[in-house]
What we know:
Elements: H1 7-17, H2 23-32, H3 70-80, H4 83-93, H5 107-110, H6 114-124, H7 135-154, H8 158-174
Helix pairs in contact: 1-2, 7-8
Amino acid sequence: MDFTFDRKNVKERLKKNNFTIGNWFANLLSIYAPDVDYRAVPIPVPPGGREDATVFGTNVWMVPKGAKNPEAAVKFILYGSQPEILADNINIWRSISIFKEESDAIKWFDEGDEIYKTVMDIARSPHSGHPALTSVSAELKNELDLIRDNVIYNGTDPGPLLEELEKRLQKDLDSQ
């Protein structure tokens, strides 16, 4: 699978798939396909589902056990977690701020960006959450992300991919 982006293939991928996911993709559009007209909407709620909900994946800072200079690592984490520093990443990828208050350093608030407002409304929803950070949930997330990307970028039917994943994971569970 090819997940690279450039001016030539972003428009083609949109034409082929008619949709995309991820708040980060919107900035790719503004860079590589600024003439594409698009809107942001929450995913429709399935029967029995939670309105305005999502399961967010996140990036985390960690200091490995046995690090040679854990104090310096913590200082770097504290530096990198400042609103002004985080704003640089947020302004490129429309990442979600870890702070409840809006920051003047985040351009999406100042510009009244519709996509960022939708992302933040969902992020602030009491129905949203985060999966447990375990090796099993990480493996499942990775597998599902691969299937999702295969469907979006290659037009693959998700049914057989999900069935194969279920069989493989069930086999792993049964062997334990």
